[in-house]
């Protein structure tokens, strides 16, 4: 089964009052384009994290974020009395200077002023136990993204199958017009020659020229090659992931056969069908860019 390069994964866990969150997302890219943002505490493990991601994800523009949030109940806080007293003196001075009443709720006012309440952040050191937990969260996020890619890949495969069937049906719809146009060409040439009464021509030579002309308009080879490309596209999808570039090349070859068929089509009905085939193929080309 093919895989999409588009995906998203997120996982989190609480460890010793700390919430550890890993988030990863990917878009289509010609190769693996990885960018990471890791909280300072886990910076020493960044290379290991990048190796985990690059092993699981072969291609795509990948963005990875790892951060922590400490629960408020576990964060120590202290009141800076000197700062609070300095604020109180300044406020009383201003009130006396301008004849304003002093605040009734000093605590409520002072607690809202900057630097009165300080949260003490302990110097954290990454332990093996915490890294084991964080690594598990990272693996969960990566697995979610991989599962997302599988779901998107399955949807893409169904879409491709539908478009391939449509192209095959449209090519088959050309046949009735293809058979009738040969006789139309022959009749038109003979009618035009009949109008020229004063010109004598070699009928055998005319037959040879008509055969040559009709052979130049024959699209049997194009139909055969296109059928081969359609079959090869399906077989390549069945080979599994990592076939995105190959599918793109096959789609290009399909386009060549459809374009040649269009250039040989001198019937309006045939040309209309070719336009519809091009539309189906264009949708395949757009979606192939998302295939791993």
Short précis:
With 292 residues, the chain is an alpha+beta fold. It is built from eight helices and six strands.
- Mean pLDDT, to the nearest integer, reads 86
Structure class = alpha+beta
Number of helices: 8
What is the element string, with H for helices and E for strands? EEEHEEHHEHHHHH
What would you say this structure looks like, in words?
The chain is α+β, with helices and mostly antiparallel strands and 292 residues long. It has 3 domains: 7-73 and 125-149, Ribosomal Protein S5, domain 2 (2-Layer Sandwich), CATH 3.30.230; 76-120, no CATH class; 152-288, no CATH class. The protein is built from 8 helices and 6 strands. The protein has helices at residues 46-56, 81-98, 106-110, 128-195, 203-216, 220-238, 244-264, 268-288, and strands spanning 7-15, 18-27, 32-38, 60-70, 76-79, 117-120. The protein has a 4-stranded mixed β-sheet with strand order 1-2-4-3. Helix 4 runs antiparallel to helix 6 (220-238), helix 4 (128-195) runs antiparallel to helix 8 and helix 7 (244-264) runs antiparallel to helix 8 (268-288). The radius of gyration is 36 Å and the shape is elongated.
Task: Give a quick set of tags describing it.
single chain, 292 residues, alpha+beta, Ribosomal Protein S5, domain 2, 3 domains, 4-stranded mixed beta sheet, two-stranded antiparallel sheet, 6 strands
């Amino acid at each position: 089964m093919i895989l999409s390069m588009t995906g998203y994964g997120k996982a989190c866990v609480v460890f010793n009052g700390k919430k550890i969150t890993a988030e990863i997302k990917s878009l289509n890219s010609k190769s693996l384009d990885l960018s990471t943002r890791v909280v300072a505490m886990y910076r020493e493990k960044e290379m290991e994290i990048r190796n985990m991601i690059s092993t699981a994800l072969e291609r795509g523009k990948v963005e990875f974020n790892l951060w922590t949030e400490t629960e408020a109940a576990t964060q120590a806080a202290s009141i800076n009395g000197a700062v609070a007293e300095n604020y109180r003196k300044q406020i009383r001075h201003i009130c006396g200077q301008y004849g304003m009443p002093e605040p009734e709720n000093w605590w409520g006012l002072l607690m809202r002023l900057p630097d009165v309440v300080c949260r003490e952040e302990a110097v954290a050191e990454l332990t093996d136990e915490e890294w084991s937990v964080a690594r598990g969260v990272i693996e969960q996020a990566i697995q979610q993204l991989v599962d997302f890619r599988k779901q998107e890949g399955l949807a893409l495969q169904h879409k491709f199958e539908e478009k391939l069937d449509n192209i095959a049906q449209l090519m088959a719809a050309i046949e009735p017009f293809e058979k009738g146009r040969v006789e139309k060409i022959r009749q038109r040439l003979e009618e035009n020659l009949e109008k020229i009464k004063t010109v004598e021509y070699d009928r055998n030579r005319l037959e040879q020229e008509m055969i040559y002309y009709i052979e130049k308009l024959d699209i049997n080879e194009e139909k055969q090659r296109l059928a081969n490309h359609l079959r090869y596209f399906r077989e390549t999808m069945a080979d599994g992931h990592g076939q995105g570039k190959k599918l793109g090349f096959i789609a290009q070859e399909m386009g060549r056969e459809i374009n040649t068929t269009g250039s040989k089509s001198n019937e309006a009905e045939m040309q209309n069908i070719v336009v519809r085939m091009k539309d189906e193929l264009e949708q395949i080309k757009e979606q192939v860019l998302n295939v791993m």
